[in-house]
Design brief:
Length: about 425
């Protein structure tokens, strides 16, 4: 496949393109699957009850919501509904709540809207079972809605003498004047902004005995390999024992992780927590840094790619990667890098639409053209013409460009019959 060096021209194209929605074959496709809000359902024991308590922690970035000026108060109001539907293992709806909400902000407070979030806790009581939790955030000001679905297992805490709650990651905690701990849950479960990682959990002792116990932990990476281990020592008294502890330091890199707590003595004393380490500047489509670097072939030079790849550590590689994209950011003051978002969403679509038996979609000729120019204005297909190999014609009306692809093998490997040439491009 032809590889080309894209310079300022590609940046201009990406900026001019509608950055969130693209038109391809007459069908609107949402490109950037942004996480508009976050939930973290946690399960806790309830004394003298057959039910357990589920606390659904909710974080809503204020930038997600549409604020409208209230002429009576002169404040800006966001009006939305938060819906919770919980279904049991028999596919029966056991909870169906619609909770109306309003957030009001002064004109001065509106200036910091991009950096702030609102937090909520929704509490429900459920019998032991496996549940599907569907939450919906419905903005009544602009009629948009966003959904998150999660599966939660509720154990029967009454069956065991000793058991454990869900694990909560903390963004911070403090102690009040009475010595009580005040915790701040990390609802996003993204630890990239934390200097130290603290966790909160409860150990339930249904016996009348007090005894020492050791809780081990290990952190697994995406390949299910243990990258960090440690242990905590406690004296457990009858009833509920609340614990806050710090995980040992580790040099995390971009990816998904799993924290497991367990006891070598009590098999029922275990819990686990999924969390991520990803910079907030990264599009949600990026989950593998090395792959994301390889996919930069249409916007970075060979020297730039070598500089990033040859970093002495993974952390330095991440820094160089982000440094490159910051240099392309058309609006550095914005929390989002629109060029990076658009580029990797085009890569994602190219992989979905143009991959074949031999190569990923972004490396095909069609993928290359799609990533550089975006979705075509019109596609003319000729898969079964007599005396002709299958071919397609892509037209870009606003750029006065046309590209013809031919499938010489009959296996869907369409090749561009003429090279891309523009004084702003250089073949490589």
């Amino acid at each position: 496949m032809r590889r080309i060096k894209i310079i300022t021209f590609l940046i201009i194209i990406l900026i001019k393109t509608n950055l969130l929605l693209s038109q391809y074959e007459g069908k609107q496709t949402e490109l950037f699957q942004e996480q508009y809000y976050f939930i973290d359902p946690l399960v806790f024991y309830v004394k003298d009850s057959s039910k357990a308590r589920i606390d659904i922690y909710v974080e809503i970035p204020l930038a997600t919501l549409q604020f409208k000026k209230n002429q009576n108060t002169q404040k800006f109001d966001a009006n939305f509904d938060f819906l919770v539907t919980i279904t049991n293992s028999n596919n029966e709806i056991v909870i169906n709540n619609n909770i109306p909400e309003t957030i009001s902000r002064t004109p001065e407070e509106q200036k910091s809207i991009n950096e702030e979030s609102e937090y909520r806790i929704k509490t429900f009581y459920l019998l032991p079972d496996t549940y599907k939790i569907l939450t919906t955030l419905r903005d009544r000001n602009n009629y948009k809605e966003y959904k998150i679905e999660k599966v939660v297992f509720v154990p029967n805490f009454n069956l065991e003498d000793i058991s454990m709650s869900s694990i909560m990651l903390l963004s911070d905690f403090t102690t009040d004047s009475l010595g009580r701990k005040i915790i701040y849950p990390l609802v996003t479960n993204n630890v990239s902004d934390l200097k130290d990682i603290y966790i909160f959990f409860e150990i339930y002792n249904n016996s009348e005995n007090t005894f020492p116990i050791s809780i081990n932990y290990k952190i697994l990476n995406e390949k299910d390999l243990s990258v960090k281990t440690g242990s905590f020592s406690y004296v457990i008294t009858p009833g509920t024992n609340q614990k806050i502890d710090k995980l040992n330091p580790y040099d995390y890199t971009i990816g998904n992780y799993k924290l497991q707590l367990y006891s070598n003595v009590y098999p029922t004393l275990s819990s686990e927590k999924d969390f991520t380490y990803r910079w907030t500047e990264l599009p949600m489509t990026i989950d593998d840094l090395d792959k994301a670097i390889n996919q930069m072939i249409y916007i970075a030079t060979n020297d730039e790619l070598s500089y990033i790849r040859n970093a002495p550590s993974q952390a330095e590689k991440e820094r160089r990667f982000l440094e490159f994209w910051k240099s392309k950011d058309p609006n550095p003051k914005s929390p989002k890098n629109e060029v990076m978002i658009e580029y990797y969403n085009r890569v994602k679509i190219a992989n979905e639409k143009f991959s074949n038996y031999a190569v990923e979609g972004y490396r095909t000729d069609m993928g290359m053209v799609y990533i550089i120019y975006g979705p075509p204005s019109n596609v003319e297909r000729h898969p079964f013409d007599d005396y002709s190999r299958p071919y397609e014609i892509w037209e870009y009306y606003d750029m006065n460009k046309q590209f013809i692809f031919v499938d010489y093998t009959g296996f869907g490997d369409y090749r561009l019959i003429t090279p891309i040439w523009d004084k702003r491009f250089k073949m490589r």
